[in-house]
Design brief:
This protein has helices at 7-30, 37-51, 123-141, 149-162; strands at residues 73-77, 80-82, 96-105, 108-117, 172-175, 182-187, 204-206, 209-211, 218-220, 227-229, 235-237, 240-245, 248-251. The chain is of the alpha+beta class. The protein has one domain (7-251): Alpha-Beta Complex (Creatine Amidinohydrolase), CATH 3.90.230. It is globular, with a radius of gyration of 17 Å. The strands form 4 sheets. A 5-stranded antiparallel sheet has the order 6-5-7-12-13. The protein has a 3-stranded antiparallel sheet with strand order 1-3-4. A 3-stranded antiparallel sheet has the order 2-10-9, with no helix packed on it. The mean pLDDT is 95. It binds magnesium ion (2 copies).
Length: 255
């Protein structure tokens, strides 16, 4: 069921979104060549603790997961597309990384993700990461009253395909509210003018995911969580929780 939020609820979700943004900023500032992914999870936990916020990631267990998620961030490196667990893996020069994180505060969830490279980036990886943010911006720009879900999907898909990247099938954005994952689904590829009409108070997480090659296969890693490209190509993603309002899209996880 799709639940539209009142203006008061959107204000409350903005506070949660600020915590998520602070968490991602801190992780980004900490990430460097030689850092362990586990250490990034540590600084993220500290941000949540200081804000008095909870984590919707920690102990999350969807149907496909063999074990509850062990961390407050997903850290996905190189060919990992998403759901990477922050292990003792050490970041190496040039690694592209995506960090996905959420928070809960006063009963409201927020969800956001960034991608970046550490050390000396390969130009191909910089282009991949830049395109993820470009697709995010296009998706947000389409998140306006009068459009439909398909317009967001089409905007994201167009940027990714035009740049020559693949889009993992079966994953995408979603509603956010009292819980991190709500209806409606917001696909990363679709037909314009189709799907649910966008109205004031709808709060989706918009989250393009790109894989380096045109091949769209991936597989679960041994930990049962990490999704990787099947051909070793690299991946990037970007995500924001956005309130659709009569005054235009409002990014709730902006800093
Ligand atoms: Mg997320
Ligand atoms: Mg999400």
């Amino acid at each position: 069921m799709v639940q539209r939020k009142t203006d008061t609820s959107i204000e409350a979700m903005r506070e949660t979104g600020r915590v998520v943004a602070q968490l991602l900023t801190t992780v980004r500032q900490t990430a460097a060549v030689g850092i362990l992914l586990r250490e990034l999870d540590g600084v993220a936990r500290e941000v949540l603790r200081e804000a008095g916020a909870g984590s919707p990631f920690l102990n999350y267990r969807p149907y496909f997961a063999p074990t509850p998620f062990p961390a407050v961030i997903c850290a996905s490196v190189n060919d990992a597309i998403m759901h990477g667990t922050p292990t003792d893996q050490r970041l190496r020069d040039g690694d592209p990384v995506s960090i996905d994180a959420g928070a809960t505060l006063d009963g409201w969830a927020g969800d956001s993700a960034i991608s970046f490279t550490v050390g000396r980036a390969r130009p191909a990886d910089t282009r991949l990461v830049d395109t993820a943010f470009e697709a995010l911006d296009a998706g947000i720009a389409a998140a306006v009253v009068g459009n439909r879900i398909g317009d967001i999907a089409h905007a994201i898909g167009t940027v990714c395909r035009r740049a020559g990247y693949g889009i993992p099938e079966g994953f995408g954005g979603h509603g956010v509210g009292r819980s991190m994952h709500e209806d409606p689904a917001v696909p990363n590829e679709g037909r314009p003018g189709r799907g649910m009409p966008l109205r004031h108070g709808l709060v989706p997480a918009i989250e393009p995911m790109l894989i380096g090659s045109g091949k769209e296969a991936y597989h679960a890693d041994r930990d049962g969580w990490t999704l990787r490209t099947s051909d070793g190509s690299r991946a990037a993603r970007a995500e924001r929780t956005v309130a659709i309002t009569d005054d235009g899209p409002r990014i709730l996880t902006a800093l």
